[in-house]
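Mods, move this if it's the wrong board.
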Amino acid sequence: MSAIARETTDSANHLGERELIDRIITALSAACPLAPRGPGGDCAHLTTNTDRHYRVVTVDGVILGRHFDLSTAAEAAGRKLIHRNLSDLAAAGAHPSDALLSFVIGGDVSVQWLEAFAHGAGKAAHAAGLEIVGGDIARGPDGHIAAHLSTTGFAHRVLTRGQANVGDVLFVTGKLGGSRLGHHLHFAARTVEGEWLCGQPAVTACTDLSDGLAKDLPGLLAKNQGATVDLSNTPISEAAEKLSKSDGIPALEHAWCDGEDYELLFAVESSRADWLESHFAKTFPQTPVQRLGIITADAVLSDTRGAKIPQGGHSHFGVKKA
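Not the wrong board. Structure tokens:
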């Protein structure tokens, strides 16, 4: 058996990200428990005997050529690694605790660059109360840089995807789109907001927006659920508007499809939606929150006025169809 596909139809890229993950989970067999302890959300939830009843675990990374390039300041790349992981914890409402940091780098990588990366990561982790307690380093091909963080936090309950009910109201924080103009390197994970949401029983599901609203909204929903949204309520960033003027792509499409927003998308019981919206605004006056729509039982996404929902979002694998 060759590690490199001999036929295109056997390649990871042909299969696509979601199906590839499903195939790996199936191959792991009995070693892979069901969600929320196993795969299925931004984090795994493991029971503990502490006051915070769940140990929440996630892993994420940054790779040269994918998440940053050679023009990126090393400190900024290190900071991004930390906040990508913190964003996953935020979606689970978990308080950061500790992490393991691993590198695979080429032998030609600058030691000064690596030290600056570590400094940026360490500074961001310390500010968030996250301790880096160990890790690993291995040599890869020349020119290669990849860093991964295995991160642990603690939460009072399980808050993840796929738990919302039909009729629940959808909300999103912040402004969306245009992250490539700088936001993807300089965002701050919504950790405090996520912990607060986890403390509200009316919040039924949550995810962070890393791949774009067009992809992450369906990922938030349970099987056979859909949503009716008001596209005019989409919180579009100034960066998305700026990109639209330069590339001709509608700002709304940028807001739904660009990805790397690292905002929180969450669902709330309809009877508590007004209360939560007002109290969130009072608690976090510097964090915009926008009502986006409601969850439906028809397994499709639609707009209240019949407008076309933007399609796309980021996927690590999968051949785009013309």
